[in-house]
Specification:
This protein is 55% helix and 4% strand. The protein is mainly alpha-helical and 195 residues long. The chain has 2 domains: 93 residues, no CATH class; 63 residues, Structural Genomics Hypothetical 15.5 Kd Protein In mrcA-pckA Intergenic Region, Chain A. A 3-stranded antiparallel beta sheet has the order 2-1-3.
Amino acid sequence: MRRLPSKFRRPRVRFSAQRITEERAVLEEYGLRRKRELWRTEAIMRNMRQRARRLIAAKDAEGEKTLLRKLAKLGLLKGNATLDDVLALARKDLLERRLQTMVLRRGFAKTPMEARQFIVHGHIYVRGRRLSYPSYIVPADEENLIEFRLARKETKHGREKEEAKGNQGQEREGAGGGEARETGEGRAERAAAAG
């Protein structure tokens, strides 16, 4: 079986107290579950900076335009950016573009962990597609197309159970001989129709 390459690199000094406290603060702020997620974003940023350094050294105008266009599309850079702006990017810039952070910033969730839960449970849609990956990097053009929907899971027998419950309620009303117990919604509807 072929071994896949790692998408992140662990820190060289494993038990640096300063690094651990900084990472813990970032994990809390952005609602990341593991440090591996943080290391993966650092690896992505590291690769972008390396690519920018190579382009500066090679003076490749075409490659420069391609990189800047890609980063502008992701929303990490503005329109008239340079390779120096790419080198100035930090991991927080990329963490702000994650779907989990976007859901929190747009007010769909109160906490980062609640935002993560909404995404994983399938309540968040981007461009009409349900996404279940909190680490999805939201492009700038999809930023305003994030929606929250309360998705009801459809099971094979889900509808049959609901119909069965509805029939039982009707049987009870008829079999009881008296008034059926009404809910608050039923009373409000009747009051609105009468008044």
